[in-house]
Amino acid sequence: MKPTRTLWLTFATIAATAALVTSSAVSASADPPAEQPRHSFAEYQGIPISIYEYGPSADEAPTLVTTGGWPGDSTIFETAARKLATKYHVVRYDQRGEGLSGHNTTDELNSLENLADEFGAVIDKTAPGKHVHVFTEGWGSFLTSEYQFRHPGRIASLSAIGAPSLDLAHYALVESGRDPAEFVKNMPNIVWYGALSTPALPELMAASGFDEAFFGAGVASAGDPPVTMSKEDMVASVSRYRASLPTRLGYAPAYSFLEVPIMQVFQSPDDSPAMITGLAGHTNNLWLTEIEGSHTNFAAKSWPLVSAELDKAIAATEHR
Question: Would you give the distance in Å from CA 146 to the centre of its chain?
Fold first, then answer.
């Protein structure tokens, strides 16, 4: 074969390959973008609460509500919300002091009772008159358990990553603390919660950027995707620890038994078993599932299992 012909065929092959790649890129870019959530606001105590809704309406499918804990806003559940929206009406909202929600908070406004009633305002707006299912972690679990205690009947299933209730965790820590070895294991948690419950110190730590750097480093070291955090959010919402943790987890829990059709706990390696010790004796129907990953990467590490268990809980309670 002559060199000129060989050179021509080479150029032709490159051109054809480039055309194929360009065609694929154009085709991919022409695909419809992922459906954007419907954004709105509820209001409680004059504080605007930012809400995102996915999938069908509350009249067309069961409603599943999710929210974040601390630190970080509810975007920790963004991936899960989009996946679940193929089957459910999904409501993701940012609690006061997070995301686009109002940041004008105080210890009193950040109380567990107010966080629970804020949840009530969200479901009254997004699923009026209907029961809902919950999938949360951390403070999202604590406030929805509080809502169920104060307004039984509206939550059909409560699924939590880690401990579902501060009040019930009190009894778990008491029970596990009877073992000196377990008490020693719990000391880091006790010290951490104690520091977050002190006057002014949590806000100073958050405002300095220490909390953001500390949690960011922890998430990165675990190989988890970044969590949406900001100094403003962390300062505005950290007083929820001081507002409720010393009483509810410490010396004056409001209840020792929580009745809910299904309480589902996903226990991750991040969680201390001492926070749920004896939990089956403090609720009527406990489902416990061990998962891989952490609160920030469960969707990547254990999604098939988590999704299947959520489906079971919703199916078991939807037509009760």
Answer: 16
Q: How far apart are CA 48 and CA 69, in angstroms?
A: 18
Q: Residue 173 pLDDT > 80, yes or no?
A: yes
CA distance 171 to 179: 14
Residue whose C-alpha is closest to residue 166's, from 69, 261, 101:
69
* Phi/psi at 250 (5° precision): -90, -85
Q: How far is the C-alpha of 286 from the C-alpha of 289, rounded, in Å?
A: 10
Residue whose pair of structure tokens reads 């969707």 in the numeric block: 299
What pLDDT, on the 0 to 100 scale, is given for residue 9?
33
Q: In DSSP terms, which residues pair with 133 in a beta bridge?
A: 64, 157
Alpha-carbon Rg for the chain in angstroms: 23
Q: What is the DSSP code string of 142-158? A: HHHHHHHHHSTTSEEEE
Residues 6+ apart with CB under 8 A from 243: 107, 108, 110, 111, 112
The secondary structure element, H or E, covering residue 123 is: helix 112-126
Of 67, 98, 49, nearest to 229 (Cα)? 98
What's residue 29's pLDDT? 30
CB neighbours of residue 131 within 10 Å? 17
d(C-alpha 273, C-alpha 44), whole Å: 35
The DSSP element (H or E) to which 290 belongs, if any, is strand 286-290
Structure token pair of residue 229: 């955090």
Decide: 53 and 27 in contact? Cβ < 8 Å: no
The tokens of 122 are what?
């969200």
Global confidence as pTM: 0.86
Q: How many residues does the chain have?
A: 320
Residue 180: CB atoms within 10 Å: 8
- Domains of the chain by range and CATH? 38-318 (3.40.50.1820)
- Give the pair of three-digit tokens for residue 143: 């406030």
Please say whether the beta carbons of 265 and 287 come within 8 A: yes
**Distant-in-sequence, close-in-space partners of 213: CB < 8 Å, separation ≥ 6:** none
In this prediction, residue 320 carries a pLDDT of 52
